[in-house]
Amino acid sequence: MSQHIHYNAVNRFYQGNYEKTNALLERHHDPHTAWTAIKDSTRINPQTEYDLLTKRGVRLILKTDDGFPPLLREIPRAPHGIYCRGACDFSRPTVAIVGTRRATGEGIQIARRFSEQLAAQGIIIASGLALGIDGAAHAGALASGTKGATIAVLPCGLDDLYPKSHANLANEIIRTGGTLVSEYPFGTPSFPFNFLERNRIVSGLSRGTVVIEAPLQSGALVTAKLALDQNRDVFAVPGPISHPNYGGPHKLIQEGAGLVTSAEEICDALGLLYQKSTSMEGQVNNALSPEERLVHAALLKAGKPMDIDTIAKLCSMEIRAVSRATAILTVNGTLNETNGLYHL
What we know:
Order of helices and strands: HHHHEHEEHEHEHEHEHEHEHHHHHEE
Radius of gyration: 22 Å
Strand content: 5-15%
Shape: elongated
Largest sheet: 9 strands, mixed
Distance between the termini: 50 Å
Strand order of the largest sheet: 1-2-6-5-4-3-7-8-9
């Protein structure tokens, strides 16, 4: 426990700056000796600082501890320690889902659906708790009802939260057995540089990283590059060539990233078993008319919003029948409608 107390004090002294903390630890080999070298330069009380973590329900896991995430230990510049609030199981396979903060409605739906379906397979979803795709990924994992379904990696100390608008989402992650993770000690604000540092942990925790909607200048593309540097798989979801949000995914695909359009494809590429859930689909289908089942199946297979004309062509149905089916499916909550486009 002494090593944890003194590592936290050293990390607090440098406000989570990896380069400075790493240099001191390399010179002095262990946290206790490193703290001894700087203790006369600060008023930090190691025990008091560590007690604050305990009071707030935060655990410090050092890289030398058995509970440290195995995949994270393998990456270049692996953090010497991570702070965790919650009770996530780092032994389960993890997939990162990342993308732009300024996501479209379709991108949000894709992130939620992929995350919910992957989490239902027992896969943990890692992301950065940011607005847009990140938040949708966490929310989708929670919707799966799977305990410990998601990990949110923060760019600040766990005594703070960024963005504050996701406070309820963060609390729900903890309540359902997920975890908040940070390499930063209490009192560390979300400096701009911390976001890029945070990204290496998101990808480092994960077997693969999925990019959904990311402009060419995007932090999500940094996460994808870090994943490649870590020898991890990178996947991208394609979209309209004219939309700037898909510039990043298309560039990744050109450079060799896996093109994916479903959670099942992600599992197949990673060598993870994907078991199709028949219970929910069966319950839905049993309550639907033949026309409604056709429409539901077409939207499920397409995986994207479609208008009535497109659905009618895919189902070889009259537009009147499709209009009636989509109206019923929307009223009973099976479908959603946005600007004349229907989606699950």
